[in-house]
Amino acid sequence: MKIPLIVGALAVAATCIAAEQKVDLKPGPGRDKVVANCGTCHSLDYIQTNSSFMNRQVWDAEVTKMIKAFGAPISEADAKEIAEYLTANYGKP
Amino acid sequence: MASRREFLKTTGGLVLASGGAWMTGNVRAATATMGPPELPEGTLSASILEALPGKVPLIKKSWRPPNYETPISYFNEVFTPNDAFYVRYHLSNIPEVAAATWRLKVGGDAVASPLELTLDDLKRNYDVVEIAAVNQCSGNRRGMFEPHVPGVEWGLGAMGNAKWKGARLRDILAKAGVRKDAVEVVFDGADSGVIPATPDFVKSIPAWKALDENTLVAYEMNGAPLPHWNGFPARIVVPGWTGTYWMKQVTSVNAVTKPFDGFWVKSAYRIPRGKFPLIDRFISQETDVNTPITEMVVNSLITNIASGESVPAGKPLDVKGIAWDGGYGIARVEVSVDGGQSWRNATLGQDYGRFSFRQWSYRFTPAERGNLAVMAKATNRNGATQTFETIANPAGYHHNVVQRVMLAVA
Question: Which of A36, B124, B148, B273 is the most buried (most CB within 10 A)?
Answer without folding.
Answer: B148
